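Schema walk-through. Below, the input block comes first and the output block second. Nothing else is stored per chain. Lengths vary across the set, and this one has 70 residues.
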Amino acid sequence: MDRRAGGVRPNGVEKEKAVGDRVVAYGLKFVLGVLNWAARVGDGEGGTLIERNPLQGLPSPRSAALAAWS
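--- output ---
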């Protein structure tokens, strides 16, 4: 909700600007991809960066505009 309202925004962006469902969906897909990567990549000591993806198995948002998320 904060992202949609513009409260959460990139560094250097001063003015709050609301974003749509597609921008939120892209952000969620990016975070999921980073977490999947961190759960698979080696840490140089025989382990992984994180044990598991904490978002794995959670339901995805079910808005018509967020259909690309799933």
